[in-house]
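HUMAN:
Just now I want nothing more than another pair of eyes on a protein record. I would be glad if you read both lines and explained how they fit together. I have put the entry right below:
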Amino acid sequence: MVLTFTLLFVFCTNKNNPYKTEHKSAIKTKFKTWQKKQIEKGIYLDSIRCSWSYFQDNDPEMTSLLPTIGFPEDSLLVYHYGYINDDAILDAIVVYNLVACDGAAALNYAQNEIIVLSNSKQEYKIKEDYFEKIRNKIGFGNLYLDSINNEKAFATYQDYLEDDPRCCPSIIKSIEINLMTDKYIIK
């Protein structure tokens, strides 16, 4: 009995198990569903209409009603997979840079992150404001997620001094974020 349970536990938590692909697919589906809802709500444009040429080639009255930020193409979405919570089911943080659809450069390479978190029922939920709350605690600079390792996220924080050109922030720090406790360490 103990041997059976041990083998089952090792199989289910092993990062090479066949359910990992199934979980990745479920994570991507959940994110794509969330993304579609954001587009339907008019918060973002889809990648097809989010281009300077689309805004140039279409009626200005119509395009003035559209949001001016959008999602990048799917190939530019980055999925960082890991076991964030304690349920031994794969989770992810989806990272993407917003696109200035109207050609404006004011986004300064802003990055967004969405957590796709599992529960013990193997259902996924979106946690969309987690990193926004972390940013609000840290300051006004940009936060770029580099990787995750289980319940920890590793990021780079960049901020500009008053005289810095937009290409070259003077303040660059590493940050380790505990995704379970919301505590972070700036290094």
